Each structure stands twice: as structure tokens, then as C-alpha cells.
Amino acid sequence: MSNKLRLCEAASVKDGEPVAAFAEGMPALAVYNVDGEIFVTDNLCTHGNAMLTDGYQDGDIIECPFHGGSFDIKTGAAKAFPCQVAIASYPVEIEDGWVCITKPEGAA
Ligand code: FES
């Protein structure tokens, strides 16, 4: 059985406008377009109860809507205080125009 998860159509994700995505057995996800390349991270900020897709994308940085913390969209690394813990990021494949990730080992 394939662990590949289809999230959304790649063409629906515009540069600078992250999209919330959901997949069975996964935490809430965020899909980004950075200069035409698609990236996927967890959507929940590691500092509090905020969805990063409600925040502000500036190039490859996503700023949380709550306290001004930010993350590197490409790696998930925390970039600005008060965020100190990285968000998970997932390798992306585009398949038939769809954004796909592979469910990590151990995910429910
Ligand atoms: Fe994201 Fe505080 S909840 S910076």
C-alpha cells in the first residue's frame, strides 16, 4: 500500500498565499509556493496555537500571525523569536499536477 498522500492541486497554490491542507493521519499541513516551487510543512506554529497559513509569507519565510515569530518554509527551521523549535517539513512530489507527500514512518 502506498503511503503517498495527495494534498491539493499544485496550480491552486499561489506564490505568497499559503494553503491549508489536510491528510488522514497527519497534523494540519501548510502548502507554499516559493518562486514556483512547492513546499509543505506542518501548519501549527511551535510557539502557540496559530495556523501559519493565517500568517504572512515573505519569499521563503512564513511569519506566524500571533507573535511575529517565523520559520524557513524550505527547511522548517525557526527563524525569529519567539519561535525556537522547528516545524516539520516534508519532501514534496508533484504527481499529475497534485502536491503529494509521503506519510512519514510511524505516522498514524
Ligand atoms: Fe506563533 Fe507565538 S504562536 S509566534
CATH architecture title: 3-layer Sandwich
- Compounds present? FE2/S2 (inorganic) cluster
Total of DSSP H or I helical runs spanning 4+ residues: 0
Structural class: mainly beta
Strand order of the largest sheet: 2-3-4-9
Q: Which ranges are low-confidence, i.e. pLDDT below 50, for 5 or more consecutive residues?
A: none
Q: What is the end-to-end distance?
A: 14 Å
Q: Within the CATH hierarchy, at the fold level, what is the topology?
A: Rieske Iron-sulfur Protein
Write out the CATH superfamily name. Answer: Rieske [2Fe-2S] iron-sulphur domain
Q: What is the overall shape? A: globular
Description:
The protein contains no helices and eleven strands. It has a single domain (12-89), classed as Rieske [2Fe-2S] iron-sulphur domain (Rieske Iron-sulfur Protein, 3-layer Sandwich). It has strands spanning 4-9, 19-21, 29-34, 37-42, 56-58, 61-63, 70-72, 78-80, 89-90, 92-95, 98-102. Strand 2 (19-21) and strand 3 form a beta hairpin. The chain binds FE2/S2 (inorganic) cluster. Residues 5-101 form the Rieske domain. It comes from Novosphingobium subterraneum.
Which features does this protein show?
108 residues, mainly beta, Rieske Iron-sulfur Protein, four-stranded antiparallel beta sheet, binds FE2/S2 (inorganic) cluster
Concise structural overview:
With 108 residues, the protein is mainly β. Helix content is 0%, strand content 41%.
